[in-house]
């Protein structure tokens, strides 16, 4: 079935395009799911959540991707900020740039390490693949 060319000034609906489009929408609908909630991370080595308008340091997993967001303060250069739980760790070590020229390692053992001079507030977010 050919799809008719839209005419300027007329409204469009799914029915305008016919059954092939309806079938495609029905096929894709189960793929649209709500994102899982964020799980708070346990901070280590004198790191604490920054608070204020920043969310707590946390993560969530969607498929084989893990989303990490950290807003922390009080720790030191080269220290482990947190450790991701098993099943939420990357297969390899990943290096990321953070705010204020900091560097963050998300390691295969789940440790997240901060490298930077400014520790009064450290902000970082990334996405890593678990496989």
Description:
The protein has helices at residues 14-17, 19-28; strands at 39-40, 48-49, 58-62, 65-73, 79-83, 94-97, 103-106, 111-115, 122-129. The protein is mainly beta. The protein has a domain at 39-129: Immunoglobulin-like (Sandwich). The two termini are 42 Å apart. The model has no long low-confidence stretch (mean pLDDT 82).
Radius of gyration: 22 Å
* Sheet with most strands: 5 strands, antiparallel
Tally the helices.
2
Mean pLDDT rating: 82
Instruction: Determine the fraction of residues in helical runs and give it as a percent range.
Output: 10-25%
Terminus-to-terminus distance:
42 Å
CATH architecture of the domain at 39-129: Sandwich
CATH homologous superfamily (4th level) name of the domain at 39-129: Phage tail base-plate Siphoviridae RBP, head domain
Please summarize what this structure is.
The chain has 131 residues and is mainly beta. Helix content is 11%, strand content 34%.
Detail the topology: elements first, then pairings:
Layout: H1 14-17, H2 19-28, E1 39-40, E2 48-49, E3 58-62, E4 65-73, E5 79-83, E6 94-97, E7 103-106, E8 111-115, E9 122-129
Antiparallel strand pairs: 1-3, 2-4, 3-4, 4-9, 5-8, 6-7, 7-8
């Amino acid at each position: 079935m050919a799809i008719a060319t839209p005419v300027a000034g007329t409204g469009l609906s799914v029915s305008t395009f016919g059954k092939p489009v309806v079938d495609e929408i029905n096929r894709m609908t189960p793929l649209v799911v709500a994102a899982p909630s964020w799980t708070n991370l346990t901070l280590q080595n004198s790191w604490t959540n920054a608070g204020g308008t920043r969310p707590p340091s946390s993560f969530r997993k969607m498929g084989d991707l893990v989303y990490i967001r950290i807003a922390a303060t009080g720790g030191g250069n080269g220290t482990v900020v947190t450790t991701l739980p098993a099943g939420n760790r990357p297969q390899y070590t990943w290096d990321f740039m953070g705010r204020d020229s900091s560097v963050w390692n998300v390691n295969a053992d789940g440790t997240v390490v901060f490298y930077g001079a400014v520790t009064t507030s450290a902000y970082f977010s990334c996405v890593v693949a678990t496989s």
